């Protein structure tokens, strides 16, 4: 039997975390020839994930540049993939989520008349500038895609409203849950020694990430000001802010929080460190999309530093709350979870709506069904 050539394309750490278990699943199955292409839109952070999951790319575009623009990323991916497609001739290309690599990869495949499968399809904030450029990246990728691997029923309903055929949508759960089942360890010791010195049992550790483009400038200053006030008002709190390497984020974080006791400003951690820090934390405060999915799996309340989210399932389930970037609002919502045990427990014990650790299996089965190898359509993940 001729093997199905499946090329996975990704370029950032979040994509890599979520595509890694799928790559490993494809490698296990004799029906597939798995081809991995990375763009290295993020170089160092991507390499950490590749090393963790022992993935050796077949192709590496290595496009990252200092202070790179969106148009620059897009054009370098388009041009780089042109030659790779000619050499490898995949039957289908899989892209993930909402990055510029995702959009450019799907567009390059379309230009070469190659089928596209969109992993984590159907997420919508319904505002094209929030998050920017992610909302349009995923909508444009969806318009190009042939197969749509929606993580939840809500995502499927979004796609149906946009005219995607029901038979082209597969509800799979989110592959990040697959990844976390291999990365979180009960007695984990951090490679970052500063994290081993924190008393997680007796301190309330707040894990923070804040880096999205729409939060650059005044919103980020507001967030950092609120965090400073929390650290000053609550001695039992330790704040661990994983500061993105982008100067637009780093400069503000260090200006506002650099001299505050019990605030730890650390560079982004590798995937295993991040997941285990989340597991030991009291709560997560973030503008990240991925953490909104990961934290519920570990029973951690999530306060979302955005005005809208494309992941409403966690909000509906009660494990996440959108709090925006107004400094007083950020402060009061963090304070509430620190002081109101009932409010905390309500969020911490909410149901995780994002997966059961079998999303990669469902995606692989769905591809085999699409290409006629499996005759029975795979069962869907039963999200609410």
TrEMBL record:
Its EC number is 5.1.3.14. Gene3D superfamilies: Glycogen Phosphorylase B. It comes from the Bacteria. The keyword Ribosomal protein does not apply. InterPro entries: UDP_GlcNAc_Epimerase_2_dom, WecB-like. Keywords: Isomerase. Pfam families: Epimerase_2. It is an enzyme of class 5 (isomerase). The keyword Mitochondrion does not apply. GO terms for molecular function: UDP-N-acetylglucosamine 2-epimerase activity. Residues 24-367 form the UDP-N-acetylglucosamine 2-epimerase domain. Belongs to the UDP-N-acetylglucosamine 2-epimerase family. NCBIfam families: wecB. This is UDP-N-acetylglucosamine 2-epimerase (non-hydrolyzing). It comes from Caloramator mitchellensis.
